[in-house]
Design a protein that fits this description.
By secondary structure, the chain is α/β, with parallel strands linked by helices. It has helices at about 20-30, 45-50, 55-60, 70-80, 90-105, 115-125, 145-155, 170-180, 195, 205-210, 215-220, 225-245, and strands spanning about 5-10, 15, 35-40, 65-70, 105-110, 130-135, 160-165, 185-190. The chain has two domains: about 5-195, 3-Layer(aba) Sandwich (Rossmann fold); about 210-245, no CATH class. Helix 1 packs across helix 5. Bound molecules: uridine-5'-diphosphate.
Length: about 250
């Protein structure tokens, strides 16, 4: 697959400066040429985690398509002179599902609680009636034989799009470990997207999204995130400011 045209670098992390149509075009080309493409929807928390966890760091840096998802990431990139807009992972993934439904491509979804997964699929199929979800499994399985059975069944379902919602870093590592066993599939780690599609969790109101404040909405509505965000975000800001123009 060709590397997307514009690639910025933040510390050692590449970020592809693509719009939604450009990102979709990369996936279309990759599916057409039957390659296995890993998509990462990057945010500052992931960068800070990647610095502590070399395996995650390697995966984040080597993914075929790395999207600027986090508001803090967009802020840092703009600070270093890159004209970039946020591309939320959930919007990208939903665009892929719509495209898959139009093209008759097969989709596998792995992750989230069983009730969340069921509701999300019900809503997605209602929205995109031609959507073919040929494999789905909840995300609370054990490593070993149970996980292997899930991998085998998902490969056998021959999906072209595989959405994995196991949280960071587990979803990125799962994709990295198993993607070579599929034939021409695009993989996206989708975090909490199934929770939103299920209707059990809301996205931030439009005005907050436009102001790049979706992260603030999430920590207000899911307070357990505060500890995680405040442990990483200030450090990320300091890292960016200290790096000056050299990040
Ligand atoms: N999840 C899962 N298995 C696990 C841990 C998490 O399926 O062992 C699911 C969880 O139910 C949720 C998603 O993974 O649907 C992670 O969402 P979160 O918003 O925490 O993702 P992150 O903030 O890490 O992107």
């Amino acid at each position: 697959m060709d590397t997307p045209a514009k690639t910025a670098r933040l510390f050692d992390y590449p970020v592809h400066l693509v719009s939604l149509p450009q990102a979709k075009a990369v996936v279309e080309e990759s599916v057409r040429t039957q390659q296995n493409l890993q998509v990462v929807t990057l945010n500052p928390e992931m960068i800070m985690q990647g610095d502590q966890d070399p395996e995650l760091g390697r995966i984040l840096k080597s993914a075929g398509l790395i999207l600027p998802d986090g508001a803090g990431l967009v802020w840092a990139l703009r600070k270093h002179g890159h004209a970039v807009n946020r591309l939320p992972g959930i919007e990208f993934s939903e665009a892929l599902l719509q495209w898959a439904a139009e093209q008759g491509l097969k989709v596998a979804i792995i992750g989230a609680r069983q009730d969340v997964l069921d509701l999300a699929i019900q809503n997605l199929v209602q929205r995109y009636p031609n959507l073919q979800i040929t494999y789905a499994h909840h995300g609370f399985f054990k490593p070993g034989p149970e996980e292997e059975a899930i991998v085998q069944a998902s490969v056998a379902a021959k999906p072209q799009i595989v959405l994995v919602a196991l949280g960071v870093p587990r979803q990125e590592k799962w994709i990295d470990q198993y993607k070579a066993r599929f034939q021409g599939a695009t993989f996206v780690g989708i975090g909490g997207s199934l929770d939103v599609w299920s209707g059990l969790t809301q996205r931030a109101p439009g005005i907050m999204r436009r102001l790049n404040l979706e992260w603030m909405y999430r920590i207000t509505t899911e307070p357990w995130r505060i500890k995680r965000t405040y442990k990483t975000l200030p450090l990320f800001v300091v890292k960016v400011l200290l790096a000056g123009g050299k990040a």
